[in-house]
Amino acid sequence: MLKGSCLCGDVRFVVHTAAKGASMCHCPQCRKQSGGIWSSAYVPEADLEISGPVHWHESSATAKRGSCPRCASFLFWKAHDEDTISFALGAIDGPTGLRLEKHIFVAGKGDYYDIADGVVQHD
């Protein structure tokens, strides 16, 4: 079981099952919202318990993003047509026990860094 929270602690979450798909997203939306690369994993939505206020923002026609309304920590990403939800790995309290599986949307990555860790990359 993984536990996490936002920076101020108003939003907390518990992951009740094994997380999958640990990835780093390099898309322009994640870069702008996080200030860099957004690292996440996903679980079935029913296996993620969220407590506290979450501000949901419709970030596109296909997905929404969840953040803390007080400290603005970007915590969740949810596709409208999927029953899974992604959560920020950086918000986990303590070790995750996960290993990075892939880099996604690398075609949109910033020009100020290279991806040189040998992990699979998807445009």
Tag the structure with descriptive keywords:
123 residues, Metal Binding Protein, Guanine Nucleotide Exchange Factor, Chain A, 10 strands, mainly beta
Describe this structure as you would to a colleague.
With 123 residues, this protein is mainly beta. It has a single domain, classed as Metal Binding Protein, Guanine Nucleotide Exchange Factor, Chain A (Beta Complex), CATH 2.170.150. The strands form 2 sheets. It has a 7-stranded mixed β-sheet with strand order 6-7-8-9-4-3-10. Strand 1 and strand 2 form a beta hairpin. It is globular, with a radius of gyration of 14 Å. It starts with a strand and ends in a 19-residue tail after the last strand. The model has no long low-confidence stretch (mean pLDDT 97). Belongs to the Gfa family.
In brief:
The protein has one domain (2-108): Beta Complex (Metal Binding Protein, Guanine Nucleotide Exchange Factor, Chain A), CATH 2.170.150.
Q: Classify the secondary structure makeup into a structural class.
A: mainly beta
Give the CATH class: Mainly Beta
- CATH-level-2 architecture: Beta Complex
Distance between the termini: 31 Å
**Weakly predicted, low-confidence segments:** none
Indicate the mean pLDDT: 97
Helix tally equals 1
The largest β sheet comes out as: 7 strands, mixed
Total strand segments? 10
